[in-house]
Structure formats: C-alpha cells, structure tokens
Design brief:
The complex is a heterodimer of chains A (270) and B (86).
Chain A (H helix, E strand, L loop, with lengths): L2 E6 L7 H14 L4 E5 L7 H5 L9 H5 L5 H4 L1 E2 L6 E4 L12 H13 L4 E5 L6 H8 L3 E6 L3 H17 L1 H4 L6 E9 L1 H5 L6 H8 L2 E7 L2 H8 L11 H13 L15 H6 L3
Parallel strand pairs in A: 1-5, 1-6, 2-4, 2-5, 6-7, 7-8
Antiparallel strand pairs in A: 3-4
Chain B lengths: L2 H9 L3 H20 L5 H15 L7 E7 L4 E7 L7
Antiparallel strand pairs in B: 1-2
The chains are: A alpha/beta (270), B alpha+beta (86).
Chain lengths: 270, 86
C-alpha cells in the first residue's frame, strides 16, 4: 500500500520544502521506498534542498505531457537508494499540471511499490497547492508560531476537509498532523512567541512534532543535504523523531522546553 | 524593571497572549464562513435577476445569510424594496 503525504501550510517560507526533504529521507533511511514530488512549478527548489539540482533532466510536467517516462524523470538520491525525487518544471506555466496527470503519476508510483509519496506543496491555495493535497491520505501542516502562519494553516485545514479527493468521494477524511517549526522555547517563556499549547488550542490538531529554530537548517540547505542527515543537530533529531512517531513509535516530545543551562544542570528540579 | 513587572508582562500583557486572542477571534469568524454552501453567491445573483424583472431594486438590496447550529441550517434572504415612487 502506498501512503500519500502532503506537506502543506498555505503560507510561504515556513519550512515545507525543508520538511518534505527531511521526512522523505527519514522514511527512506528506515528502508521504505519513498518518492518526494515538487509541486511548485515555476519555482522549484526541492532539487536544491536535496542536492540533486545538477542531475535534473526531466520533470513532472514532461511526464504528464508524455515527453518522458516516469522512470526517466525520477532521480535516485545519492545518499539513500530507497529515495527518489521527482522535480517540478522550472520553465513551464504553473497551470501545466493536471489532476488526471498527477493521478496517473501517483498510480504508477503505487504500481512500482513505493511505500510513501511525499508531496511538497507550493505556498498559496492555487492549482499546484490544490493538486499537491488532492490525492493525499495524510497532511503534515507545517506552521510557525506566528499569527499569519497559524491563520493560513487554519484556512488550509478547511481546504483539506472540503476540496480533497477523500472529501469529494465521501471517504475517510485526510489525517491531519501539526508540525510546529522554527520554535523558540526561550521566546515562549518571555511571552514573545505563541506556545505549542496556544497553537494547538487554535488549530485543534494532533501534534506530530516541534522543530526548534536552528542554524543547522540553513547550513544543511547550503550544502544540499536534508537536515535529517545532520544527526547531531537539534532540527535533524526533531525530524528523526517525527518520522519515527509517524511510523508508530512512541517517542516523547523534545525541543518544547528550554535547554537547561549550567545552573539548570546543577540545580535543576527535574 | 522589578521582578514583579517581569511576571506581569509574561502573563497578561505579553504579545504572545495578544496574538492568541486575536487569532482565536479571527479563526472563529473565518470558520463560520467555511461551512457555507458554495452556491450562495450564485443564488444571490440569480435571485437578484429575478427580482429585478419585477421590481426596480439596487444591487445591494438583497442579502443572503446562511447560519448553522447543531440542529438546523437556516437560509435567510432579506430583500429591501425601494420606497414607492410618487
């Protein structure tokens, strides 16, 4: 069975592509055959984050128009042989994607025994974003603890529950998970940032994990390595937790509380 | 700033608290529109066309509201007729 996951948010710049790259790599590292698809036609970036930008020959639009086969367009990841990347087109019009074309690609991936297909949604609520979520079984809603992002996530939840294939066909609804990114426990403590509990109060979503604000996200993207491969980094560990949790492991949440300083280590109560 | 001031800020007046209150109001408001049937704007337009065949009303003379609670859905159509011309 293939599980289709959309990574979505509505708002741009909250960490969709970072998350897509990290979790796809996480599934593949655990031995699951995984494909990650960039739906941002015209503004593709997943290839850069995955470090395969120089190996892109064909893209999703070529496959939909029959100009290349799916096998020709899929790029095998250089770190993990269970992971494949399907890039977006950089030159085509964003309306080049079609529901029928995307549906066929997903069916073909299922026939090739892919276990997970991660759909990296573009920002906004237009065609690319719509098609990225339309066929999904699960939605990872990436949210920053910030008013605009929370509002857009709520809007996205409405769209997931009304405009998806599962909604239209009256099937079991898409399972929605919250990924709170760029979290800073220090700023939450001094009242400068919405807390995990605040965001959950508003969105009423199941929390899959919190990714702390981390320098490692930028350094990972600099070198084209999904941040989950940086096993020493907090963000890398947070994504590894999320992957394991999604796959059913019972892992306590981390990165919600502040790291204990030297005094905390000596005098900490817990 | 005393220690007491510090605690005051983190509780009631912090910007995070303001953000949460603003979001709760906004999200509740926007969700109330979410469940509206998608045909409402078209319905409003067509109703207006029919009424205009008989009465000379303005574009904004008609309002269509959809409300929903646990037990029932209410579609309220309000048409303001012009005052009789003399």
């Amino acid at each position: 069975m293939t599980r289709i996951i959309v990574v979505t948010s509505g708002k741009g710049g909250v960490g969709k592509t970072t998350t897509s790259a990290a979790i796809a790599m996480g599934f593949a590292q655990k031995g699951h055959k995984t494909a990650v698809i960039d739906f941002d036609v015209g503004l593709r970036n997943l290839d850069l984050i995955m470090g395969c930008e120089r190996r892109v020959v064909y893209d999703i639009v070529n496959v939909i128009f029959g100009e290349a086969t799916l096998n020709q367009a899929l790029i095998r990841d250089k770190h993990c042989e269970q992971l494949y990347i399907l890039p977006a087109s950089q030159t085509r019009d964003k309306d080049a994607l079609s529901q029928e074309g995307v549906g066929q690609i997903l069916e073909e991936l299922a026939a090739k025994d892919f276990e997970y297909v991660v759909c990296d949604s573009p920002a906004g609520i237009e065609k690319g974003a719509h098609l990225a979520m339309y066929f999904a079984d699960d939605a990872f809603v990436v949210t920053n603890p910030e008013v605009a992002s929370v509002r857009d996530s709520d809007r996205m939840l409405g769209i997931l529950s009304s405009k998806s294939r599962r909604a239209e066909q009256g099937l079991e609804p898409i399972k929605e998970y919250l990924l709170l990114t760029r979290y800073s426990p220090e700023r939450v403590r001094i009242g400068e940032m919405l807390s995990v509990a605040d965001v959950q109060d508003i969105l009423s979503l199941h929390l899959l994990g919190v990714i702390p604000e981390s320098k490692s996200v930028l350094t990972a993207s600099n070198s084209g390595m999904p941040v989950i491969l940086d096993e020493k980094s907090d963000a890398g560990q947070a994504y590894a937790d999320i992957v394991a949790r999604y796959l059913g492991e019972d892992i306590p949440h981390r990165f919600i509380e502040e790291k204990k300083g030297i005094f905390g280590k000596f005098f900490g109560s817990k | 700033m005393s220690l007491l001031d510090y605690f005051k800020i983190t509780k009631a007046n912090s910007t995070a608290t303001i953000a949460k209150e603003r979001l709760q109001i906004l999200v509740a408001h926007e969700r109330s529109f979410k469940n509206q049937p998608s045909y409402l704007p078209q319905l409003q337009k067509e109703l207006l066309q029919v009424i205009q065949k008989y009465v000379n009303v303005e574009q904004d003379a008609i309002s269509v509201n959809f409300e929903q609670d646990e037990h029932q859905e209410t579609l309220e159509v309000n048409i303001v007729l012009p005052e009789k011309s003399r």
